[in-house]
Amino acid sequence: MILIDNLNFITERFPLLWQAIKPLEEQVFPAVEVVAAKNGSPTMMVKKDGKALYLHSSYNPEAEAQRFVAQFTTVEKYHHIFFFGVGLGYHIEALLRNYPSVQFTIYEPVPELLSTYLSTRPLSALPLKQLRNLYVEMAPANQPLLLKDFTDFTDGNVLFVVLPSYEQAFPELTKTFITNFQRMVAGKRTNLQATTVYQRKWTLNSIRNFKYLLKTPNVLQKKDQFKGMPALIVAAGPSLTDEIERIKEIKEQGLAYIFSAGSGLVPLLNNGIYPDAATSYDPNQFDGVYKQVFEKRIASLPLIFGSTVGISLQKYPGPMAHMLNSQDTVAPYYLQLKNGAASPKIYDSTTISVVLVQLLKYLGFDPIIFVGQNLAFRGDYRYAGGIPYYKPEVTDKWRSQAFLVEAVDGTEVYTTEDYNRMRLELEQVIADCEHGDFINTTKGGAKIGGTTFVPLEKLIKHHLTRRVVNAAWFPEATFDYDLDHLLQQEKMMDADYQQIGTVIGRLGKVFAALEGFGSGASAGQWQKQISRFDRELKKLTKNRFYQVYIQPGRRVELELIAKNLDGIRFEADSKTKGEQIVKNFRNLVHSLPQDFATLGQEYEALQRVITEVNTTSSGGEG
Question: Which of 62, 124, 283, 395 is deepest in the core (most CB within 10 A)?
């Protein structure tokens, strides 16, 4: 039976956990036994393969736990501790006695052990105010969901602590979990870093690119319009150099549609090959990929761009079409298609190839064929030659960071964490596709799960045997959106824009009062001002201008605030609660006036674009 105090705590704080473990309440676990250690404390033993394994010392589990946690001397530099394997919790109690203010999570992969712990020792021995998550893995299929739930609310600065006995008692389970945990937390850190760098760029680019969305066709308007047509995604890996002549043959004979992925365009242009479209989604203001296009005024090369892209669209000489990016908050607010539907969007990624897979599958292309998608070193090279802004050679620094993964031919190749993350994202987007074939032609590249390796020359000989490309495939320049909806949305936005200066001013005034409270302020004064702050904050978060223009540029900061909201909400002491509000919201509140000033100028420029479109449209109708 679970201890009554433990049961009360779990049903209140983690009701879903209680529902999961409730069926275990009346069960007996013959492979798990709690026995007395030599010093009289309970210790846990599991029986496996005819052997009895102690999860804690059979002599003095408390002393063993103290010796174990002595190795953790820099805990204060972490924002969170993740305990894998609870046992009877001795190691958790010992470490948190030394660091009682650090937030922590407990993850138990064996449900029977969690039930036994809760039936044996009190959770109250832990600093429960700092407990953020308590997970139990009821089935292996739950693990990705639980890990995602955790990583969604962490900044990636996590100390991982595994109970050592689990590595002996459950070696494969522990090894697999550690690998998955490290990958997901590293991905979260990378995503947070990218979001920190790009969050302002995404918003500013969305605003500045808006006029080009009104002048160019939406490439995602017609789903499956190229159903069954083969398409090449040409990336800039070192193997691309080997395939130039074969790509040229495919282009000249129209055997498949060719899409360049980012810098994959440059080697193609160097060899006189114009893909059926170049693609761009990078929010950085870098035109190097398109230098030849700009300088030579190549007007016959179409460009498909993401709505948050950073390149100089005004300089592009050829036809363009757009796709809405998931990081764009501006266009989805204003635009709906003429049929009343919201435009489909493409989810952002660390690599343009993932974006292209989404785009091409939506349009119906099949099979999708990867060329130059090494995602690994090839000998001494990491990029194809002839790209002036990249040094293709592998440096000593890159080698020092490399590790081995499986190659397309079953051997191994060296890759890096960045390349490997791109590969994993590609594998995920491929797995999400319900049907269709994916072929990897990249000789010497990393194996991409979900693809079949077929050399390009064999593919041409046996599969790409007839002309399929329609030279006039690219959509004509049109205005694809509902003008009345655009004008209606702008009218509501302008009303909120006129009010937000006052809203920010009131919020700042209330917050300044909270900041100014000293030790002499009463609990009633604190609570009164906290209530005022809550009211003004709600007005801010309901304001459309804040939602569309300001909030997206503060994603990381707001995510970190969200992680602490539960602790603030459930804090009973008004003074402590107020101090936590001041600590967590100070930077946001102080930044709002400048955000409003900067983005207000950008918004007024966008208003002029909308007015011009309306005037032009009205004039055309007249």
Answer: 283
Task: Give the C-alpha separation, 428 to 349, whole Å.
Answer: 11
DSSP 8-state symbol, 237: S
Q: What gap in Å lies between CA 423 and CA 477, rounded to an integer?
A: 35
Helices (H) and strands (E) in the chain, counts: 21, 18
Q: 390-422 burial, b for 16+ CB within 10 Å, e for fewer?
A: eebebeeeeeeebeebebbeeeebbbbeebbbb
Other C-beta atoms lying within 10 Å of the C-beta of residue 18: 17
What is the full DSSP assignment across 307-375?
TT--S-GGG--S-EEEEEETT-SHHHHH--BTTSPPPPEE---SSHHHHHHHHHHHHT--SEEEES---
Give me the helices (H) in 52-135, please.
Answer: 61-69, 90-98, 111-120
Please name the residues in contact with 254: beta carbons below 8 A apart, sequence gap of 6 or more: 467, 468, 469, 471
Mean pLDDT of the chain: 92
**pTM of the entire predicted model:** 0.77
- Is the model's pLDDT at 34 over the cut of 90? yes
* Amino acid found at 368: I
Q: Which residues are 536's β-sheet partners? A: none
How do residues 346-402 score in pLDDT, each as one tens digit?
999 889 999 999 999 999 999 999 999 999 999 999 999 999 998 989 999 889 989
Which residue in this structure is represented by tokens 């404390």?
41
Report d(CA 586, CA 555) in Å as an integer: 15
Q: Residue 561: its pLDDT value, please?
A: 80
pLDDT value at residue 190 = 64
- Which whole number is the average pLDDT over 334-350? 92
DSSP 130: G
Nearest to 251 by CA among 230, 220, 235, 228: 230
Nearest-angstrom CA–CA distance, 166 and 169: 5
3-state secondary structure of 94: helix
The residues, ordered by sequence, that sit 6+ positions from 42 with a Cβ below 8 Å of its Cβ are 34, 35, 36, 61, 88, 120, 121
The alpha helices in 351-448, defined as continuous H runs, are 352-363, 396-400, 417-431
226 in Cβ contact with 202 (< 8 Å): no
Mean pLDDT across 594-620: 89
Q: How many residues does the chain have?
A: 622
Name the one residue in this structure whose structure tokens are 């495919």.
Answer: 250
pLDDT higher than threshold 60 for residue 518? yes
Q: What type of residue is 329?
A: T
Q: Is 426 exposed, middle or buried (0-12, 13-18, 19+ CB in 10 A)?
A: buried
Beta bridge partners of 407: 446
Long-range contacts of 189-196 (CB under 8 A, 24+ apart): 189/155, 189/156, 189/157, 190/350, 190/421, 192/155, 192/156, 192/556, 192/559, 194/350, 195/555, 195/556, 196/556
